[in-house]
Write a structure and sequence with these properties.
By secondary structure, the protein is mainly α. Helices cover 77% and strands 0% of the residues. The chain is built from 6 helices and no strands.
Length: 146
C-alpha cells in the first residue's frame, strides 16, 4: 500500500482522516494511483448510499405518507442510480470534472434529504456519512483536473 500517496491525496480533501481510513480499509488501494483511489471512494459512496436507501425504505413502510421520506427516497435514488454510476464511469474514462460534478451532486442530495426535516432527521447519520464521502470523492476528482 502506498501510504504516502493516500496521505498526500487525502490531505487535499475536506475530511483527511475519513479519507485515509476509507482508503486504507480497501485492499485495492495497494498500488492504486489517484484515479484508482477515486474509484474506490465512489464505491464507498455507493455502499453508504445503499444503507441510506434501505433505511429510507424501512421508514417509508412505517410512514408511507411521509413526504419528507419520499423526498429522501428520490435523493438516494439519484445518488445510487445516477451520480455513482456516472462518477465511476467518469473516473475510469479519465473525465475527472464529470466525476467531481456527480460526487458534488451526491453530497448535495444527501444534504437535501437532511434539510427536508426540520431539525435532526431519522437519517442524519447516514446523510452526513454520504455527504462526507461524496465530498471527499469530489475533491479527489478535482486533484485529477476536475
Amino acid at each position: 500500500m502506498d501510504a504516502k500517496l493516500i496521505d498526500e491525496t487525502c490531505r487535499k480533501t475536506p475530511n483527511p482522516n475519513l479519507c485515509v481510513s476509507s482508503l486504507k480499509s480497501d485492499p485495492r488501494s495497494s498500488g492504486a494511483d489517484v484515479k484508482g483511489l477515486g474509484i474506490i471512494m465512489v464505491d464507498v459512496v455507493k455502499a453508504k448510499a445503499i444503507i441510506g436507501q434501505n433505511k429510507v425504505s424501512g421508514l417509508l413502510k412505517q410512514s408511507p405518507g411521509d413526504l419528507r421520506l419520499k423526498v429522501c427516497s428520490g435523493d438516494y435514488d439519484a445518488i445510487s442510480n445516477h451520480q455513482v454510476p456516472n462518477a465511476s464511469l467518469a473516473f475510469s474514462r479519465d473525465i475527472p470534472h464529470i466525476a467531481e460534478e456527480d460526487m458534488s451532486e451526491a453530497a448535495d442530495e444527501a444534504r437535501a434529504c437532511e434539510l427536508s426535516f426540520s431539525g435532526r432527521s431519522p437519517l442524519t447519520d447516514v446523510n452526513n456519512a454520504v455527504a462526507d464521502v461524496a465530498s471527499i470523492t469530489a475533491a479527489i476528482a478535482k486533484q485529477l483536473g476536475g
